[in-house]
Structures are given as C-alpha cells and as structure tokens.
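To: structure desk
From: M.T.
Subject: fold request, one chain
Message: Could you run this one when you get a chance? Sequence is below, nothing fancy, just the single chain.
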Amino acid sequence: MTDPRYLSRAGKIREGARILGPPEDFIVALTVHEKELGEHVDLFVKGFCQTLFNEIHSGGRYSPGTPQDTGFARANWYGGIGGTGVAPAVQEPATRVPGMLSGEAQAALVQLDETALSAKAGDEVAMANNAHYIVDLENGTSLQAPEGMTRLAVAAGQLIADEVAAHVMR
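Reply: Done. Structure tokens follow.
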C-alpha cells in the first residue's frame, strides 16, 4: 500500500492548486494567472498535471524522476481524478534492464498522461505509487535521486504553474 504522505494531489483549481507533498503542504498561487487564463484554465490544468506527473515519473528540469533500476518503481505510478482509485501493483521484473524504460513503466506514463489530459478546472487530481519501497526512494536511498523526486517536483510547483500559464497564453 502506498504511504499517503507521498501522494501528490492537485485540488480545486479555482481555489488554487493545492499540492500535498512530502513533507509539507503548500499552495500554488494561481490567482495571479486566473484572469489571464480565462477560458484556457482547463488547458492550464492539463498542462500543469502533465508536467508535474512527468517530473515525478521520468524527470525533467526540477526532479531527477523516479530512480530506475528494474523499472518496478516507475511502473507502479498511477493517477486518478477524484482520488487515486485502486491500481494493482505491477509484478517486480525477474531481470534487470539498466537504463531502459520497461513496457510497464511506459504504460504507467501513458496512464498518467491520460489522467492529466482528462483533468479540468475543479477536478481533484492525484498520483500515487504501489511500489513497496517508494518511500525509501523518496527518502534518498538511490544515487539516482539522492534528494528524492516527488519532493523536488512539488517544491517547484509554482515555477511549473508559471511556466505552464505562460505557455498556454502564447
């Protein structure tokens, strides 16, 4: 079962995107963008969720992403709207494929993208992981992500929001 302290959850967008991340809660100040986004707010929500999910799963500008040895941890990310729902844990692979994104990890990324692209203003969007050692990875047990991955992506939430808003308004 996923440790609930490590769920990333975007709350109702009109109230500001509220992210629950390890170890603190914070608010992404969307009010500065709300008027300029206007009718594009749903596009913003999709872009924000997709960017945050990708940062945590695969890495990007703000997070190294989920460490990948066998691909098990990356394969166990899943998202949901209105809560995370229930996702069965992916089986741990029998063989190690260094540096390769497993088919299961790729499927997890596709599912996260589908969740993000279905999100709209007012939705509660969540991301969780079933890997039994995900909390250990978040706490820096991997040299690939010594400072974790979720914490870093969540800490960059305002920067991500600002970048996505600027991109949507182009």
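Reply (cont.): The chain has seven helices and five strands. Let me know if you need anything else for the meeting.
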